[in-house]
Amino acid sequence: MTFLTRKNISRRALLRGAGVAIGLPFLDAMQPAVASAAPARKVRLLCIEMVHGSAGASDIGTKLNLWSPAETGKSFDLTPSSLRSLEPFRDALTIVSNTDCSNAEPETATEIGGDHFRTSAVFLTQSHPKQTEGQDVEAGTSLDQLYAKRFGQDTPIPSMQHCIEDVDAAGGCSYGYSCVYTDCISWASPSQPLPMIRDPRSVFDEMFGITAAGSGGTAKDRSILDWVLSSAARFQQKLGAGDRARFNDYLEQIREVERRLQAVEAWNLDNRNRQPGVRRTRPSGVPRTFAEHVKLMFDLQAIAFASDITRVVSFKLGRDNSNRTYPESGFNGAFHPTSHHSGKESKILDFAKLNTFHVGLLPHLLHQLRNTPDVDGTLLDNTLVLYGSAMGDSNQHNHKRVPFFMVGRAGGRLKGGLHLKAKSGTPLANVMLSTLHTLGLENVKQFGDSDGTFDLNTVVS
Amino acid sequence: MDRRTLKEEAAMIWIAATAILLGAGESGGFIRQYCVSCHGRAGGVTLTTFDEEHPERKAETAEKVIRKIRAGMMPPPGSPRADRDASRLFVERLERKIDASASRLQPKPQLQRLNRAEYSQAVRDLLDVNLEIDSLLPPDTVSAGFDNIADAQRVSPAVIGGYLRAAGVASKRAASRIRKPSPRAVEDIARRAFRGTATAEDIADAVRFYKQGGGGRDGMELALRCILMNPRFLFRIELLEPEGVASRLSFFLWGTGPDDTLLQAVRRGDALELQVRRMLKDHRSQSLATRFAAQWLRLGDLEKAAPDPQLFPGFSPDLAASMRRETESFFRHLIREDRDVTELITADYSFIDSKLASHYKISGIQGGDMRRVMMPPERRGVMGQGSMLVSTSLAERTSPVLRGKWVLEVLLGLTPPPPPPNVPSLDDRTKPEDRFKQTTRQRLAEHTQNPRCSGCHRFIDPLGIALENFAADGSFRDLEHGLPVDANGKFHDGTPMQGSAGVRDVLLQYRELMLRNFTSQLLTYATGRRMTYADQPAIRAIVAKASAEGNRFSAYIQAIAASPIFKGAT
Fold first, then answer.
1. Would the pTM of this model clear 0.90, i.e. be above it?
2. For testing the chain B interface, which of A215, A227, A261, A393 should be mutated: the one with the most B CBs within 10 Å?
3. Beta bridge partner(s), residue B498
4. Nearest-by-Cβ selection for A195 from B147, B159, B221
5. What is the residue-level pLDDT of chain A in tens, covering all 461 positions?
6. How many CB pairs under 8 A join A and B?
7. Nearest chain B Cα to A286, which residue?
8. What pLDDT digit, counting tens, does each position of B45-63 carry?
9. A88 contact B CB<8A
10. For residues A436 and A126, what is the distance between their CA atoms, to the nearest angstrom?
C-alpha cells in the first residue's frame, strides 16, 4: 500500500487544525470487506457554487486575465488571476474557461431581468428553471445528485448540502421565481430541490447521528420511524389527492432517513471507525465572519470525506443579490453593487479582489485533503472539487465565459495541471457531462444543454 | 430576437405593464378615453378585449387595472387623466361588478408542516423545553415574504433528520423533568400535542412506547419521541372539522397549537368572536409581532445591515437589536391596545430603550426595557423607526431607492421590477473624490433626467428622498457632508411631499390601498398561501368591515376569522 510511505500527517493533527476532534477510521477500515479484490479508489465530489460570476468574465477582465490565465496547457501563469492562491495545488488544478451557461439566459419576455432569481438553480443542473412561485418548480437533476444516486449509497449519507448565507427578507427572490431557485443548488430530481444546511452544528449532527440520548439514540429513532411508516395509513384517510401526494413524499423521505440511520449506526459501532481517546467535539454555532464559517464547513467536509461518511457534498457560498461585505478581502464594497462594475477597470479590479478572497479560502480545504493519506495516494487525489458560477459578467447579467475550475485528480482520472480553453459558445454542460463520465457515470449521454463532450485531459490547439 | 435588445426593452417593462392597462372594450368610456392610446396591443397585459361593463370576465386583468389606478400610477404622470373622483368612481364600479359575481369557492387548506418557529413554540408550550431550533432544522423556504407557505415547504432527509434530532433533544430534557412518569402523563401530553385530533390509536401507541421503554424516565422519553414524530403533531391537518379551524386560528394568532378552551369552543360550535378577543389579549398573541410583523416589515434584514463603523461609530449590533425590538414592541402595542392600524404610519409615539434614546436624541430614558415615549415630530410611525431606516441603507450612505421601494412594496403592496442589467450603481457614477461633495439626493438626479431611469424611478425615489433627513444609521440629520438636506419633493401623482410628514400624508391619502395590502399580508400568513387576484373580493370585504369599525386591529382579525377565505370554506 503506497499511502503508508507518504508523508503521514497524523489524523489528530488534521483534526486539531480543524478545530473539531473526532475519531477517524483506520485506513484499512475504509476498504469495504467485499472489495478486497478490486482497487477501491472511492472518489469524493465537492461542488462549490459562488454567485455573481467573476470580474474575469468582463472584457477588460478577460484581457487582464483576472480569472482564466493567458496561456493554455500546462504552463499557465496564475499571478494576475483570482485563482492565484491555488498555485500550490496547480498540479491538481484543471481550469476550463470560455464556456457558457445558456440555460440561465431568459427565454421569454417575462423572464428578462430575473437572472439573479434563477441562476443558482442552473449551475449544477444546466437546466432552465421554470418561472413559477408555486410547488410546480422545475429545473433538472443536478450533477452531484446523479453521482450520489450511483455511488453515494455506499456511505451512510449519500449526499450533503451546505450553505453559508441565511435566507433573507427582501430581494432574495422575486420576479415570479420561487425562493427554492435561490436557496438550493442540488436537485434530487427536476422537481425536487434539496434544502441546504447552514449551521455547522446541524452538519455535525447529521454526520454522526448524534441524538440527545447519546449512544443507542439512533436505534430509538429507528423504532419511531418504523412506527410512523407502519401507522401511516391512519393519517392519510382524510387527505385530499394533493396532500396525499405530499404526505407520501414525506414517507418516502422517512424510509431514506431510516436507511441512513442504520448505516450511520453501523459506522458508529464499527470499532475500526474509532480511535480510542479521540473525542468528537460539536461546533458551537455559526461563526461570525464569512471566512471562519466557510473554513469550519470545509473542516467538516474534510472529515466527512476522510472518514467516508459521505462522498458527495454541494456547498453554496453566496446568495444572489447579496449585499454582504468581505472586509478581509481588502475591499469594503458590498458584493452585489460591486459586481455591477459598469465595465470600468478600477471597479473590475475591486470586484476581482472579492473573487480572489473567495477562491483564497479553498487552500484551507485542499491542504487538509492533500495531507490525508488515502488509497493509492492522498485524499486530494481521490477527490474532485468543482467551483464556479452560472453567471459570467454579472455587470451585464450574462452567462457567458462563466468562471469554472476543478481541483483534485478524481481517483487518477484527471491529469490536472491544465488550463483548457473551450471554443467560444461551448456549453459548460459539455464539461459537466465529461465530468460525469470521469466520475464513472459513462452511461450518461446528455446533461442539461450539452451538445457533446469535452476532453478534460487534453489541450486541443 | 437579440437578447440584449430584449433586455433593454425589459427596462421599460414595468411602465409597459402598467401602461398596458385597458384595451378598446366595446363600451369605450373611461378606458377608451384614458388608456387605449398606449394600451392597444403592444406586449404585457393585453386589454383589447377587455369589457369594462364586465370586468368579472377578465378578473385577473381587472384587478391590475384597479390597483394601478388606485395607486395613482395610471394613467402615467403627465398623461391626460381623469380627475381623482372620476377615477375612484370608475374603479369602485369595477370592484362592485367583480365582487358581486365572485365565486364563493375557496381553495382548501393545504397540509402545512410545522416550520422552525412553530415547531419550537409548540415544543415549548407542550414540554416547557427551549430548543436551539436553528441548529436543528434547515432554514424554511420563504415565499411571498413568509416562512409558512404550504406549497413552498419541502421535505428532504435533512428536514426529517432535523425533526428526529429535535425530538430526541426535547424528549430527553422533558423526561428528566417530569416528576411522575406514568401512562396517564403520556396520554395527557399526547392529547395536547395533537391539537384535538388524537385518536385512541395514537394515544395507545404512545403508551406502548412508554412501556416498551421500560416505563419511568426512559419510557417517558421514548413515548415523547413517538408523540413529537407523530404526523398529527408535525403537520397541521386543517380540514373543515372544527379542530382544524381551531388549529388554524391558533397558529395565526399565537404561532402555536390551540388550548383546551378554544378546542371546546369550536366543538360546541360557539362563534369564534369571543375566542378571537380572548386570544388577542393573551400574551401569546405577541407572535403576531415577532413573526407576522417581523416578516412583513422585513426586520430580519436588520441583521445584514452594516453601517460603516468609521462613518457611523455609534452603530452596533446591539443597537440593531434594539431597533428590532422597537418595532416589535410598537406592533405589540397596536395589538394589545387594539389601536387603529393606520397608526402604523401616524403614531406620534414609539417604544425605546436607553440606547435608542441616545441615538434618537431623546432624553430621560434609562435601562434596557422598551418604554413608550412621545417621539419628535419628524418620527412618525414605522417610517421613523430605526429598523426601516437602517435596513434600507447601504454601508456608507442612505439609499432613497431602497427606502422608496420599501414603502411601495411593504406598505402599499406595489412591487417595482428589478433594475435592468448594465446600470452602474450610483457610487460608480461619482468620482471617489466627489463623493462627499454632493448630497445623496444630488447624486440621484440622473434618475429624473434620464428617461430610461425615470420611467420607474419617478415612482420610487420621491418617497425615499422625503426620508433623507434620516442618515444610514437611522439618526436624524439636517446636513449631509456639510450640505443642507433637501427632503422636499413630489409624489408621483403630483402631491407635494415635505419630509417624512409628507410621506405619511400621501400614504393616508392612499390608505385604502395600504389597508388592502395589510389585509392581504395577514391572510397570506394566516392561510399559508399566496393571495391572488381571485382573493381580492374577499380582501375588499374584510377591509370594508374593519374600516367601518375604525380600522381597529381586532376588527381586521375578526373579519378575517369570519371570512370564508380563512376557513377555506366552500
1. no
2. A227
3. B488
4. B159
5. 333 333 333 444 444 444 444 444 333 333 333 333 444 689 999 999 999 999 999 999 999 999 999 999 999 999 999 999 999 999 999 999 999 999 999 998 888 888 999 999 999 999 999 999 988 999 999 999 999 999 988 888 999 999 999 886 665 677 889 999 999 999 999 999 999 999 999 999 888 876 544 545 678 888 999 999 999 988 888 788 888 998 999 999 999 999 888 888 788 777 666 544 444 678 989 998 999 999 999 999 999 999 889 999 999 999 998 888 898 999 988 899 899 898 999 999 999 999 999 999 999 999 999 999 998 999 999 999 999 999 999 998 999 999 999 999 999 999 999 999 999 999 999 999 999 999 999 999 999 999 999 999 999 86
6. 226
7. B135
8. 677 778 889 999 999 999 9
9. no
10. 13
Q: Could you tell me the end-to-end alpha-carbon distance of chain A, in angstroms, rounded to an integer?
A: 38
Q: Which residues of B touch A344 (CB under 8 A)?
A: 424, 428
A145, A187 contact by CB (below 8 A): yes
Give start and end residues of each alpha helix (H) in B256-384. 260-268, 272-281, 287, 294-296, 317-336, 343-346, 354-360
Characterize the bridge pairing of strands A187-189 and A192-193. antiparallel
Q: What is the rounded CA–CA span in Å between residue A128 and residue B333?
A: 47
Parallel, antiparallel or unpaired: strands B371-374 and B349-352: antiparallel
Q: Where are the beta strands (DSSP E) in B84-203?
A: 112-113
Q: Which residues of B515-548 are buried (b: 16+ CB within 10 A; e: fewer)?
A: bbbbbbbbbbbbbbbbbebbbbbbbbbbbebbbe
Q: What is the 3 state secondary structure string of B378-397?
A: CCCHHHHCHHHHHHCCCCCC
SS (H, E, C) A270-290: CHHHCCCCCCCCCCCCCCCCH
- Report the C-alpha gap between A23 and A274 in whole angstroms: 5
Q: Provide the grid cell at B315.
A: 452603530
pLDDT digits (tens, 9 = 90+) for B19-32: 444 333 334 588 87
Nearest CB neighbour to A109, from listed B43, B170, B232: B43
Cβ-based contacts of A395 with chain B (< 8 Å): 421-422
Measure the CA–CA gap between B211 and B222, rounded to whole angstroms: 9
Q: Does A257 contact B at CB distance below 8 Å?
A: yes
Longest Cα–Cα distance of chain A, Å, equals: 67
Residues B418, A188: C-beta atoms closer than 8 Å: no
* Subunit contact A235:B231, Cβ cutoff 8 A: yes
Q: How far is CA A352 from CA A54, A341, A347, A402, in A?
A: 7, 10, 9, 14
A107-158: pLDDT as tens digits: 988 888 889 999 999 999 999 999 999 889 999 999 999 999 999 888 889 9
In the DSSP assignment, the letter for residue B41 is S
Spell B17-41 as b/e; 16+ CB within 10 A means b. Answer: bbbbbbbbbeeeebbbebbbebbee
Is the link from the previous residue into B75 a cis peptide, with omega within 30 of 0?
yes
Which residues 420-439 of chain A have a CB within 8 Å of chain B? none
Residues 299-328 of A with CB under 8 A from B: 323-325
For A:135-154, CB contacts with B below 8 A are 135
- Residue B449: the pLDDT is 81
Burial class (CB in 10 A: 0-12, 13-18, 19+), B414: buried
Q: Nearest Cβ partner of A334 from B151, B165, B395?
A: B395
- Please provide the size of chain B in residues: 570
Tell me which residue has cell 443507542: A216
| ipTM at complex level | 0.84
State the DSSP code for B301.
G
Which three cell numbers, joined as nine digits, stand for A58? 468582463
A100-113 CB burial, b ≥16 within 10 A, e <16? bbbbbbbeeebbbb
